[in-house]
Automatic annotation (TrEMBL):
Residues 28-386 form the FAD dependent oxidoreductase domain. It comes from Shinella lacus. This is FAD-binding oxidoreductase. Keywords: Oxidoreductase. InterPro entries: FAD-dep_OxRdtase, FAD/NAD-bd_sf.
């Protein structure tokens, strides 16, 4: 079993330029995942020259080439909950941002020259309890009638039409959502950015910046030989998500990094998998500690993911828990060998909302995908870029929303094992009471 992402078989992250020959640029973007690359594309498309992306690892080597490739656009809270937190106007703008992300991502994908294995056969939200099914039904009922048409509620006896398992109490099918190959997608974004004149440097770590008139002087360090350089720039964007280090303390106090694990099976008979997960839809369940799964783009493997562990662990350790749940979900997969097991970091905010904006030192950021960011971070990369360009009415919704900080926390989430255990107990209790 390999401990690298299955996606890297076809799209292993590549280095960008290694030797740094620039001392000035108009925009310096830290992070070459969906956020950073999407922002770079929007800036370059707007005609900004000298846009530079820097990553400490290879291009897209963070979560963007490690995820499940399941694309959707749902917020982890309702409009009513958001209104209490942010006020009605901001809340409705935030919901608009979530609602716009998927269609924006599809538009952006259409501008890419490389294939990304886009499959829009739909997503299945599998209800773990009857109460969860009721909540899904209520959520659908609150939507405008044209949006309700995109969703079907399935009672327990109909679940087999979309998922061959007996463990769920019902499901909601969301049409128009689906899957991509996440590694190919991040590579295609990088190619588009480079075609537009963006320079991508890898193996360089951002160490911090000082203000310099209207702009900044950023310090970068070569990861291998530790040489440091300075670069003058008009704007800086941090798109570091779950990989925020001590050099970005303001973000570290507000974002909680969480490891997420995935496994891929060896190839299995296509017909068997077509029976288990027909049409290769994306599936995720309604548990607090959720599991999500799909088939590989060729339909011959199951890819299974979730937050299998809450202590810092290895990919192999995470794989044990995931395999157990996969076999519980689909007894037909018992004994199937795993070809890959891997992990990556996502980041969560205290209010489960993604945030973006500008810090007091003038540096822009987008952070906290809350576990779900293929379309969201693509869209917010674009939205923050529009804000960086000074376009009107861009300081709304997620951009400029209040980003709550955690007290007694410096970036090391010591409390995660306690919260994880609590969530698991609540999931078990909910099922027991069901
Ligand atoms: C296992 C897993 C499964 C997931 N499944 C899904 C899914 O099915 N659907 C979905 O929508 N989302 C999913 N996600 C979440 C999704 O992958 C992320 O939301 C998204 O990739 C975040 O993109 P990003 O550009 O913000 O961050 P990343 O892709 O994580 O990029 C951040 C980059 O910043 C760089 N960096 C950090 N600090 C510095 C520094 N100081 N200097 C230089 N570079 C720095 C890192 O090297 C990294 O490359 C999953 C994530 C994981 C880990």
């Amino acid at each position: 079993m390999k401990t690298t992402p299955f996606w890297w078989e076809e799209a292993e992250p590549q280095h960008g330029e290694r030797s740094f020959d620039k001392t000035t640029c108009t925009a310096l973007i830290i992070g070459s995942g969906y956020t950073g690359l999407s922002a770079a594309i929007t800036l370059a498309e707007a005609g900004l020259t000298e846009v530079v992306v820097v990553d400490a690892m290879r291009i897209g080597e963070g979560a963007s080439s490690r995820n499940g490739g399941m694309i959707g656009n749902s917020a982890k809270f309702t409009l009513a909950q958001a209104s209490k937190r942010y006020g009605e106007k901001r809340a409705s703008e935030i919901m608009d941002d979530y609602g716009s992300s998927m269609s924006f991502m599809i538009q952006r994908a259409a501008t890419l020259s490389d294939p990304i294995d886009l499959n829009l056969s739909g997503a299945v939200v599998a209800a773990y309890t009857r109460k969860d099914l009721t909540k899904l039904r209520e959520m659908r009922g609150r939507l405008a009638s044209e949006n309700q048409k995109n969703m079907d509620i399935l009672e327990q006896d109909k679940v087999h039409s979309v998922l061959k398992t007996d463990i769920y109490r019902g499901a909601m099918v969301i049409h128009g959502q689906g899957t991509i190959h996440p590694g190919k997608y991040v590579q295609a974004l990088a190619r588009r950015a480079v075609d537009l004149g963006v320079r991508i440097f890898t193996g360089w770590r951002f160490l911090g910046a000082r203000q310099d008139g209207q702009g900044h002087v950023a310090r970068l360090q070569n990861v291998e030989n530790r040489d440091s350089i300075e670069i003058h720039t008009d704007r800086i964007l941090l798109g570091v998500n779950g990989y925020a280090g001590p050099e970005t303390p303001w973000l570290r106090k507000r974002s909680i990094p969480v490891q997420s694990y995935m496994i891929a099976t060896e190839e299995m008979p296509f017909d068997l998998l077509e029976r288990l997960i027909p049409q290769n839809r994306a599936v995720f369940d309604t548990k607090r500690v959720l599991y999500y799964f799909r088939r590989s783009p060729d339909g011959k493997r199951i890819l299974f993911g979730g937050r299998a562990r809450f202590r810092t662990s290895t990919a192999e350790q995470g794989a044990e828990g995931l395999r157990g749940f996969m076999e519980h979900t689909f007894p037909e997969t018992r004994g199937v060998a795993l070809s890959h097991a891997w992990l990556g970091n996502v980041s969560f905010a205290l209010d489960f909302c993604t945030h973006g904006g500008r810090m007091s030192d003038g540096i822009y950021y987008v952070s906290c995908c809350n576990g779900n960011g293929i379309s969201g971070q693509t869209y917010l990369g674009h939205r923050i870029a529009e804000h960086m360009l000074g376009r009107p009415n861009t300081d709304r919704g997620i951009i400029g929303s209040r980003f709550p900080r955690l007290y007694f926390y410096n970036g090391k989430p010591w409390f995660l094992p306690i919260i994880g255990t609590g969530y698991r107990l609540l999931d078990k209790a909910a099922r027991w009471l069901d």
